[in-house]
Amino acid sequence: MHIADLHCDTISKIYQSRKRGEQTGLLSNHLQADIKKMKKGGYLLQNFAVFTDMEKDEENPYLCAKNQIALFYEEMERNASEICHVKTAAELEKNKKEGRISAVLTLEEGEICEGSVKKLEEFYQNGVRMMTFTWNYENSLGTGRGLTEKGIAFLEKMEDLGIIADVSHLSDAGFYDVCRYAKKPFAASHSNARALCGHKRNLTDDMILNIAKRGGVIGVNYCGRFLQAQEGDGGCESRVSQIADHILHIVHIGGAACVGLGSDFDGFLGGSELSDCSKMELLWEELKRRGISEDRADDIFFQNVFRIYKECW
User: Fold this and answer.
1) Predicted local distance difference test score (pLDDT) of residue 233
2) Of 259, 265, 220, 264, whose CA–CA distance to 243 is shortest?
3) What is the pLDDT, as a whole number, of residue 239?
4) pLDDT tens track for 178-189
5) Which residues of the chain have pLDDT under 70?
């Protein structure tokens, strides 16, 4: 069992805890993801999102992101024998052969770039290889009406550089703008099926088909509010069976090649039967119980993500 996870908020959580004076690190911590838990869970690759809440965080989004990236590099250096930052598919292959976990750096909130293509290029040089256009607010790249002219220009530049466009958190109109203008495969790093849970963060069947037709990947999210309908904004317990339901629905609509994992560990409220990243065998066994072969499960757990990285980087 090999695992590639398209999204977690662990670096941002460590950063926030450090600001509170806590000595939290990536090797071992109280969070849902750390290196020891990843090794136990069979991880080969983890995307680490750099995130900022533009309405609540006191720091400038750009400076907040730069500080989180500095922390990310500090943790990579401290734990170099166990995990290594990758920027190319060749580096990912090398880590796999040498038994190290690969860490991919991503941005969650396009306004971190402050609408500047030069800052986007700077983040690419910092090692960023995937980025969402928006989070929960409109910004200079995207609104409820779709991508702005600047957002379209960013998409073109991202593809030129080798930063994968991430449509999670994007409005429906913005999603279809990415479909209209993208020339390469793109991802929804942590999104589920709207047919099973009507939350606006989830993808319609037509969206799933569009991602699949373009060779993209959807990382299924473990957050309870995106797995089942519920009232209010609070968190709820998520079950392995529900995660499997969404995986199988996406497979049914778009085929097995478009499905991956996007846990959203350390980024959601509510509990989960997959309480941390060491418990992934529970999902593997659930999919096998549902009739998914080991080869197909390996595609979902790792190979599909590896393929899109090789194509887009």
Assistant:
1) 55
2) 220
3) 95
4) 999 999 999 999
5) 230-236
Annotate the chain with DSSP letters as a single string: --EEES-B-HHHHHHHHHHTT----SSS-SSS--HHHHHHHTEEEEEEEEE--TTT-SS-HHHHHHHHHHHHHHHHHHTTTTEEE--SHHHHHHHHHHT-EEEEEEEE-GGGGTT-HHHHHHHHHTTEEEEES-SSS--SSEETTEE-HHHHHHHHHHHHHTPEEE-TT--HHHHHHHHHH--S--EETT--BTTTS--TTSBPHHHHHHHHHTT-EEEE---GGGTS--SSSS---B-HHHHHHHHHHHHHHH-GGGEEE---BTS-SS-BSS-SGGGTHHHHHHHHHTT--HHHHHIIIIIHHHHHHHHH-
The confidence score (pLDDT) of residue 232 equals 55
- State whether the Cα torsion 77-82-85-91 is positive or negative: positive
User: Given this model, what pLDDT does residue 235 score?
Assistant: 58
Supply the pLDDT for residue 261. 98
Q: What whole-number distance in Å separates Cα of residue 107 and Cα of residue 134?
A: 10
CA atoms of 153 and 139, how far apart (whole Å): 14
**What pLDDT does residue 90 have?**
96
